[in-house]
Amino acid sequence: MHPNYPAGNLLKGIFRFHLIFLVILLISTLSGCVDQPLEQQQVSDTSSVGNAALDEDSEQFVNPTSDASTQPPQVGGRSLFTASEEAASRFLSQATFGARSDDILRLVESGNNFSAWINRQIAVAPTFHRQLAQQQGLVHRMDVWWSAVVDHDDQLRQRMAWALSQILVVSDFPTILRNNQPAMLDYYDLLVRHALGNYRQLLEDVTLSLPMGIYLSMKDSQKYDPATGAHPDENYAREVMQLFTIGLWQLDQTGRRVLKAGQPIPTYNQKDVEALARIFSGWGSADAFKWGSDFTRPMKAWPDYHDSGEKIFLGHIFPAGQTAAQDMQQALDILFNHPNTPPFISRQLIQRFVTSNPSPEYVYRIAAVFKDNGRGVRGDLAAVVRAILLDDEARRPRDAADAFGKLREPLLKVTHLWRNYSGKVKAGNYWRPEMDFLQAPMRSPTVFNFYRPDFSPVGELRDAELEAPEFGITTTTSITTATNTLFSMIFARWDAQSSIDIAPLISIADDPEKLVDELDLVFLAGAMSESMRDRILASLLQQSSGPEQRARDALYLVISSAEYAIQR
To answer: How many CB atoms are located within 10 Å of the residue 382 CB?
Structure first.
């Protein structure tokens, strides 16, 4: 770690977590203490190694200040990349499932017109997962997800759908959903359809989605019946407020909590939950209220089960005699138009695309776009993601803020690898990625996603009051398992769940500097530290192996590094 950077720096936190394999890989491999090819090495999952590693000083390996456009030449007096190349790669790492070499080149040739790139992405036809499954004859929905996000061009839409799937969570842990994978595809397609549309319509379609109705038990929720003891279910009513719209605490437009006498102010209370549960009563499957199972259509209102009495929710009166649809529309309008919703949702989207700790000013600017896209429209998600990606805080030099950046999601490391080297999942063989990466589309362990947006690991990050959501699934075991899985993929091991084609790297592997430059630009946007680059080059130059082995070694060292682990 560079001595001039404060202890709270995100890179320092991720670095300490990655010492388990950094000490093994970067010391043993790059220092020349061993001379066998990396294909013979894998990370060991031993707690004794992990505990010892945590006591090591790690500063020799990472220099977070490296920026090719501003730093001195790194190797041989050369400036490795132009500022345009670095900027293009960095933008694509935020906006897609992984920057690709050809895409970087095209974006640079366009003059890095990021706004025009976003316009083209908005215009690209969406890739719907159910349709893709039918076209390709895929059985497992995970296979469909891999294909959609790796092979198809609507990258921005798919990235937004992925982000929304972590906010508007449905998981197939309930048996009935696990046994209805086509319905799970339909729910994901709902997110794809509205990913660049309007949040109000998305919220309504999510509310009436049968998978959501099952997952958060709004389906078959009915009015109070003294004869049977039945009463409205409160589950969806609570989560649509806490997680999907207004959050727990009153916020100002920068996303910070509003305090009264030094204490945060709740946005709702138990009476609001009970009232909203009554408002949402009376919805069931399209074919039958109690035992219906028509997954092809949204839920239907069944008047006999709806509580049509007067209700008061968040200070708003719902007149007696309204239908279930009228009650629902009024409630969703209230939540959508609540002052909390723009900063609450905007901040989470910034975290999913750009940085875990956006400044209050960044949140304020994005929330303002959520409130009004410039044409009087509230909730325009295309305008919101455009503002997120083009904001000065996202585009300014990487070292402009110490805490800027985010830990890369484990699955996005895989998609980045596959998008560059024609990665293909073996059909039916990789439908449980959570076993390796503690992440799988629509398979989070709870409605709170794989990790909470305000999660901060104990230690330096929490002491510095920094959030790092992805650290919620970063453990000694998950680091080891994920790294070994990437190892198997890159070295084409028998246990790899996919195949990749690294021919483009093999073709330049006789020139180690060119090889490392290519990997630096594609995976680190030209930000590889001088120390890391020198050590990888030293390792490659001392080996007598052929170009294929050299290409695989270099790729593995880059993609398993602590520097790549942070997207900055």
So the answer is: 19
Q: Is the dihedral of CA 378, 383, 388, 391 positive or negative?
A: negative
Could you tell me if 117 and 107 are in contact, meaning their C-beta atoms sit under 8 angstroms apart? Answer: yes
Q: Strand 300-301 and strand 311-313: pairing?
A: unpaired
The whole-angstrom separation of Cα 227 and Cα 204 is 32
DSSP assignment of 476-500: HHHHHHHHHHHHHHHTT-TT-SEE-
Between CA 81 and CA 64 the distance in angstroms is 17
**CB within 8 Å of 179: residues ≥ 6 apart:** none
Beta bridge partners of 318: 311
CA distances to 24, 437, 478 from 46, rounded to whole Å, are 12, 18, 12
Half-sphere exposure of 121 (CA within 13 A, CB side): 28
What's the Rg (C-alpha) of the chain? 25
**Nearest C-alpha neighbor of 37 from the set 563, 473, 550:** 550
Give pTM, 2 decimals. Answer: 0.87
Containing 567, the helix (H) or strand (E) segment is strand 566-567
What are the backbone angles phi and psi of residue 154, rounded to the nearest 5°? Answer: -80, 60
Q: Cα separation of 282 and 485, whole Å?
A: 47
**CA 150/CA 147 separation, integer angstroms:** 5
What is the per-residue pLDDT across 139-187, written as a single tens digit (0 to 9) for each? 889 999 999 999 999 999 999 999 999 999 999 988 899 999 999 999 9
Which phi and psi (to 5°) does residue 456 adopt? -140, 125
| Token duo for residue 527 | 């930000």
Q: Are strands 316-318 and 311-313 parallel, antiparallel or unpaired?
A: antiparallel
User: In DSSP terms, which residues pair with 380 in a beta bridge?
Assistant: 198
Q: Is 169 helix (H, G, I), strand (E, B) or coil?
A: coil
Q: Name the amino acid, one letter, at 336.
A: F
Please give the pLDDT value at position 424.
82
Write the pLDDT tens digit of every residue in 253-271: 999 999 999 999 999 999 9
308-356 pLDDT, tens digit per residue, is 999 999 999 999 999 999 999 999 999 999 999 999 999 999 999 999 9
For the chain, give the number of residues.
568
Strands of 168-286, DSSP E: 259-260, 263-264, 283-284
Pairing of strands 406-407, 316-318: unpaired
Instruction: Determine what percent of the chain falls in helix, strand and coil, rounding each to the nearest 5.
Output: 50, 5, 45
Query: What is the phi-psi region of residue 492: left when phi exceeds 0, alpha when psi lies from -120 to 50, beta otherwise?
Result: left
Look at the block and give the residue holding tokens 């138009």: 337
